[in-house]
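quick q for whoever's on today - can somebody do inverse folding on this one?? i tried earlier but teh output was garbage lol. tokens:
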């Protein structure tokens, strides 16, 4: 997964206007209590970050 795809999916599921705020402010337990932005800055794999977001948002399997 590319970083651009992560952002596309975030925009799709939380909205264009909210995606950046969500990525910056939402603490996700699947990312060890970090936000998307923090996890990416720390070098986490983009696919792992998306899977944590996917679980946090309780999206259907088809969106994984």
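ok took a stab at it. sequence:
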């Amino acid at each position: 997964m590319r970083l651009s795809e992560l952002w596309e999916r975030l925009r799709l599921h939380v909205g264009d206007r909210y995606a950046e705020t969500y990525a910056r402010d939402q603490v996700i337990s699947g990312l060890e209590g970090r936000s998307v932005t923090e996890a990416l800055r720390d070098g986490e794999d983009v696919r792992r970050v998306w899977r944590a977001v996917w679980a946090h948002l309780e999206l259907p399997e088809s969106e994984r």
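fwiw The CA atoms of residues 47 and 59 lie 15 Å apart. also Residues 3-14 form the longest helix (12 residues). so keep that in mind when u check it
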